[in-house]
Design a protein that fits this description.
By secondary structure, this protein is mainly α. It has a domain of 186 residues. It has 25 helices and no strands. The longest helix has 32 residues.
């Protein structure tokens, strides 16, 4: 069983934590709002820094003033909710309550907001180490944060189960009771229920928790996962059985007898029985996978790479780290090259899988060249040509015929792949302009034709005088 250790404190994560929390208690509302959004963008590296920060606050928090500040914010939120007569007017989120009634110059307010902000961050991270920190708050701060911690657990659901199981043996009785109550609320109180998750990481942590607890009632469940297709789950189940140890002997004897038909002697130690059971599981599983792998290799040697890939997919689905996976890479490479550029995502996925299977193999550069060539073709089709990808493909594989041809005709391909709508739009604009001009000329001609004759100008005074003479 691996020991449960405190998460390491990452220096960069600690700086980021300080930055977010200082913004969260800023005197400016817009900065606090930006920090509230930042709470959702943290990652697992932050857990160690959060744990250290919480530990420091446990000593410095004003235990009299802080609960009163929190209760005042809760009361104000409840009153606002009642006055609005809207059930959705305020969620039961204490951080929102505190931010709605800001007192950034009040140290107790700042401390409570930082604590609640860290609970929000740990909840968003959601790993087992993060949940351990949330549960530890129940011991560190008593009743003050109990409801907020309970809401965080309810939000996390199955992700909270491993840490809750471990907490059943916490040093503080109040934490033990809290864990048992929350497991019951989640419907994960017994071993058969606790493993009811589809997340392999959570499942592995749940199984290891049984080992930490030395839960004899969980031996049967652990044995059922000791031959799981996923290696991490399989290993965790075996670690759990090792953690339970001697109390598991009788169920190990029954399982060994079911597998072999032979009843083991009572003097055989529990760990010997466990090793024999694991050996039988591995032999059966490896034999089946080996048969599939051999079938795939046979198809590959016959040039039937598509059939080989079908067999290899079945192997890798059950054991992604299969010992002979490097030998599978050439088939994925060959199949990848046959996928048309109209399915460029499928083509790239197949080529990249070939590279992952044998990253330093003899075909590694050729695979990288094919990937670069495929990306160049895809970008060209999208109207975003990138000559550097073509050059990269040729550097990696000078014999790449497709890359050589594309390099020689790159300018022509750019012209060919250019969208035709700008040309059509330009032609359409010219035609429309010409039509408008012709219409204008015609209308002027019509206007002139319909115009009445112009009347002669009135006689001038001089004209009138001369006419009279």
């Amino acid at each position: 069983m691996p020991p449960i250790k405190a998460e390491p404190i990452d220096a960069d994560a600690q700086k980021e934590l300080d930055r977010i929390l200082s913004k969260l208690v800023s005197e400016k509302a817009d900065i606090r709002e930006a920090a509230r959004k930042d709470l959702g963008s943290v990652d697992a590296k932050m857990v160690g820094a959060i744990g250290a920060r919480i530990e420091a606050m446990r000593e410095s928090l004003d235990r009299d003033r802080a609960p009163r500040v929190l209760e005042a914010a809760r009361k104000a939120a409840r009153d606002a909710k009642k006055s609005s007569k809207d059930d959705d007017a305020a969620e039961d989120d204490w951080l929102e309550f505190m931010l709605a009634k800001p007192q950034p110059k009040e140290q107790a307010w700042r401390d409570v907001v930082e604590l609640l902000g860290m609970v929000r961050m740990l909840t968003n991270i959601g790993t087992t180490p993060a949940v351990r920190q949330i549960i530890q708050l129940r011991a560190s701060f008593g009743e003050m944060l109990r409801l907020d911690i309970s809401r965080a657990v309810a939000k996390l659901k199955d992700k909270a189960v491993p840490a809750l199981l471990e907490a059943k043996k916490h040093d503080a009785v109040v934490v033990q009771r809290f864990a048992e109550l929350e497991l019951d609320r989640l419907g994960r109180a017994i071993p058969g229920e606790a493993v009811g998750t589809t997340d392999p990481d959570v499942l592995a942590d749940v199984l290891r928790a049984f080992g930490y607890l030395r839960d004899v009632d969980a031996v049967g469940v652990c044995l059922s996962f000791a031959n799981h297709e996923r290696k991490k789950v399989r290993l965790a189940a075996r670690q759990a059985i090792t953690g339970i140890g001697e109390p598991a002997r009788w169920q190990l004897r029954d399982t060994y007898q079911d597998l072999t038909g032979d009843k083991p002697d009572k003097s055989v130690p529990w760990d010997v029985l466990a090793k024999r059971i694991f050996f039988l599981y591995d032999r059966s599983r490896v034999a089946e996978l080996s048969d599939l792998a051999v079938a795939g290799m046979t198809a590959a040697r016959a040039g039937k790479h598509a059939d080989a890939v079908v067999a290899f997919d079945k192997v890798l689905a059950r054991d992604p780290l299969f010992d002979e996976r490097a030998k599978m890479a050439p088939s994925y490479f060959e199949v990848g090259k046959t996928i048309g550029f109209d399915k460029v995502d499928d083509r790239l996925a197949m080529l990249r899988k070939a590279k992952r299977l044998d990253p330093a193999g003899p075909d590694a550069k050729k695979i990288d060249a094919e990937i670069a060539f495929t990306e160049a073709k895809a970008l060209l089709a999208e109207g975003r040509p990138d000559r550097s990808l073509v050059q990269l493909a040729l550097e990696l594989d000078p014999d790449h015929a497709g890359a050589r041809e594309l390099a020689a005709t790159f300018e022509q391909e750019i012209v060919k792949q250019q969208p035709t709508w700008p040309k059509r739009a330009a032609l359409g604009g010219i035609a429309a302009g010409t039509a408008a001009l012709l219409a204008l000329v015609a209308s002027l001609a019509l206007f002139r034709k319909k115009r009445p004759p112009t009347a002669p100008p009135p006689p001038t005074p001089e004209g009138q005088a001369s006419g009279g003479n």
